[in-house]
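Dear colleagues,

As part of the handover before I leave the project, I'm documenting each prediction I ran so the next person doesn't have to rerun anything. This entry is a single chain, and its sequence is reproduced below.
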Amino acid sequence: MLQNMIKQNYEEIKKRISEYADINDISIVAVTKYQTVEAANEAITCGITEIGENKVQQLCERDKILLPAKRHLIGHLQTNKVKHAVSVADLIQSVDSERVAVEISKQAQKINKIQEALIEINIANEETKTGASLSEFKNIIQTCASLPNILIKGLMAVMPISAEEYYYEQMHDLFCETAAMNYTNTQIQTLSMGMSNDYITAVRHGSNMIRVGRILFL
C-alpha cells in the first residue's frame, strides 16, 4: 500500500517535470526528515536514488539501516557537527560560511575523503533563513579554492515561500556565472532549487536538482 502510493506520487512528479525538461537531467532528492525508515526505504525501492536529511544526527543514525542511495545533508550545518556529517554524507548541500567550508575540508582530510558540497545561497536575504549572502558567497568559493579536501559541485537555495520568479532567474544566473569562472576545487554542475511547493517553477528556471518530501510521501 505504502509502496504503491509512493510510486504513484514519484511517477506523477516525473511526469510533471518532463513537461518542462528532460527527466534524465533532473535529480530528485527524497526529503525523508519527517518519514519513517520504512517509508524512506520504500521510496528507494521505487527508484529514488538520492535521499536528503536535515539533521546530521538523523542522517548518521539512519545510515546503516537505509537501503543504498546517495545521502545528502540539506539542513543547516554547525561546525561542531561537521565531523559526523563528513563521515556519512555523499553531498553536503548547506555550506554557508567560510568557517564551515574550512572545517569540512579539515575533517574530510582526516579520513582521506574529498567531500562534495554545494554552497547555500540566501537569495532573498531573509532573516529567518540560513545561507550565504551574495557577497559572502564570493568569499566562500574563493576560500574553497585553497582547501584540498572539499569539492564544490554547485549551488543550493531555499526559495521564499511566495518567491517572485526574479529570484529563480537570479539563482540560475549566479549558477551559470559561477560555472564560467572555473574556480579551483569546483565542478559547478548542480543547481539544487525547488521543493514540493515550487519544483516546477524551479525546473522551468534551470534547476537540475529538486528536494521533495510532502508530495512524495503524501
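The chain has a mean pLDDT of 96. The two ends are 12 Å apart (CA to CA).

All the best with the project,
I.
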